[in-house]
User: Fold this.
Amino acid sequence: MGCEPLAGGRRELVHVHEVEVSLGGRTVLRDVDFRIAEGEFVGLIGTNGSGKTTLLRVVLGLQATTAGEVLVAGREGRRGGPIGYVPQRVAFDHDVPVRVADFVALGVDGTRLGLARRDRGVHERVEEVLASLELGALAGRRLGALSGGEQQRVLMAHALVSRPRLLLLDEPLANLDLPRVHETIAVLDRICRAEGVAVVLSAHEISPLVPVMDRVVYIAHGRVACGTTDEVVRPEVLSALYGHHVDVLNVHGRVVVVEGEPGDPGTHPEVVVR
Amino acid sequence: MIHWFVEPGFWSNPVVGTALVLGAVVAVVSAAVGVMVVVRGQSFAGHALTDVAMAGGAGASLVGASPLVGFLLAGIVGGGSIEAAGAERIRDRDVGTGVVLGAAAGLTALFLYFVSSSTSATGSTQSVLFGSVFTVSPSVVPLSLAVAAATLATLFIVRRPLLLSSLSPELAAARGVRPRAMGLLFVLVLAASVALSALVIGAILSTALLVGPAFAALRVARGLVGATLGAIVAGVAAVELGILLSYDSFYWSAAHRSVPVSACVVGVVLVEVAASAVWSRLRRGRGR
Amino acid sequence: MANAWLAGTLVAIVSGAVGLFVVVRNSTFAAHAIPNGAFAGAAGATLVGASPLLGLVVFSVASALGIAAFGRRRNDVVTALALVTMLAAGAAFLAASGAYEPAIDALLFGEVLGVSRGEVLALALLVVGAGVVLALVFRSLLYASVTEEVAAARGVAVRALDTVFLVLVAVTAGLAVPVVGALLTFALTVGPPAAARTLVARPGRALALATALSLACVWAAIASAYLSGWPIGFFVGAYAAAEYVSARAASSWRERRARP
Ligand SMILES: Nc1ncnc2c1ncn2[C@@H]1O[C@H](COP(=O)(O)OP(=O)(O)O)[C@@H](O)[C@H]1O
Ligand SMILES: [Mg+2]
Assistant:
């Protein structure tokens, strides 16, 4: 399937080859194959429980695989690579006494042991990242006192401050209202284009991402399809993925994925794409 | 001129001198460790380790070893067991701690039974449970200082990865920090700090100085550095003021019975916590 | 000996039942702090010449109410502070009354072999009372323990339940402290119920198993203490921990076998 990195001489950043993952004795992902080039914007699309978080954790080196190979920047997938990560849920306690700027700085030196003070360069980099995400005003606030949306933005700053080559975001749009969704996507698009950071964003809805995505990685039933939106969101591709017939309907400009034959008893329409 | 407040002999008394110095050292270590204890929500483990350390103290007095060694060894073994018993799920952490605590309490009972049936030493329970800075012999001062310095140095060196894995184990793991290793390391630091303070100032004050000043300071300060400094100031103030009050209390009543140091220090700590609560409420009231 | 056996049995029944909720609600620390508050109370009662049992109950209920009132947020810290306050009060009472050490030992580590017939009767009354309260709140307490917010939205008085529950823990403490001692009351409240919850998921069965394990723990401890002459507290602590460790081992073995 159309999984080669885009043309234009971009180098490969992530290579996932025939990966299989089991959780609690059940195979959650199998034969997962895709590549991501430097500076690409990739949407990782799938319904709840389809394995998006698991796949991101595989790339991060947090989830062991039962088969296959994962390379990030040409090296075996392992923790602490050049990757920024924004988890799906980080609920900071209301009274966590850590300021936003200090938390973001941990993105640079949070892994370092030692006696040394934080140097000037770190502070400058933190200010720069906070400014680029329009978080300058929150720098001195306590982490726990921020709203959910603000915390998520701060997590993005934390992920970006160490200048990663790959940014993984797990359902960053799930709890945002529509204007915030578009705003967040615009920010991520800018980071992707201006700084050459490859962005992988998981979501259960594809529609708001269509204008910015270079590629889709689509998960269903433990399998993955990969390509441009037009290549992947088609009946024959998704039918192969689901293992039975799937229709892709275009209703009022919204794309709707429907599982099973029309009138087939016991089928559930699954609305995925607008 | 200040004799109306500080009773005669306070400054010249060598026992009081040792108490003031050791009390301050223990207060500094407890406050610094305590800030992370409160952030990580491990007050229970912090308290349980005093009882675990006491089992070691009782065991040491049974075999005639140095009590500080007994306290430290038991603290380290107990800390490791607490981490092992409850690490799988955060939710189960307290249960694991509780089981270790129950077992340690049982061992203490057994050791004390052997101690009291093999020697005629009296007051062993009381000194193990309540401790008293007034009864510490100056000979433990050097070893106590060494343990305190080692504890503080370790905490300082690991502070950033420790904070990151306390805030979010998932994020820390993604960056290559091992949250479970950090958790174990911290519990060992905690065990050393608690063993030291339980021996020097007793189990009650060990918990009070670990949790109280840190909690008060965390409410008032905005960042972690400020909170740590504030906790240290609050902790040292509580110990010194408590010792002074206890010493003075001898002259308060005609019967000349002092109020125990532990009660005085806890009193000061509670005042500090109440003050921080009032302060943070006022600040919130002003729209901060 | 007969009295000891009866008293131990009564304490085991109520500790097992209340302890299950202690474990499910994650109130382990409070369950530890409250018997210790009770210790302070007994010392205070000696000071004013009142009955230690009255002192136990008054002070343990007072510390339970304190934790319930201030501990909605940062429960662990509030519990720790309540505990040190009670212990410091106990130390001050003891210093003021000049009571001697064996009294402390007895309260901390228990003296089940010296229980009187009157104390057994008092225990029996308290067990019946605690049983009635637990039966009345069982369902809603379970609901609130599992999903507090949903239960509150459905109209369960979550805060009142929390208070009732902690008072129940306090009454258990008041019962059990003179029998197995403050330190070991706690071991009995946590070890057997935690073991039961590890092994079975259904609340009714867990309750039955917790009570059974708790009884086994106390009976074995009394017999061992009687035979060896060693303090009963040691055996309660050791057997409770052993039950929990075995339960964890059994459940992880079962999980490993369940995997293909
Ligand atoms: N620790 C686990 N043990 C067993 N199964 C798990 C575990 N974590 C996740 N799963 C299962 O793996 C599947 C994928 O989960 P996940 O990656 O979290 O999905 P998504 O992020 O797409 O919602 C789900 O069916 C889920 O139930
Ligand atoms: Mg997910």
Remarks:
- The interface with chain A takes residues 73-74, 258-260 of chain C (CB under 8 Å).
- The two ends of chain C are 52 Å apart (CA to CA).
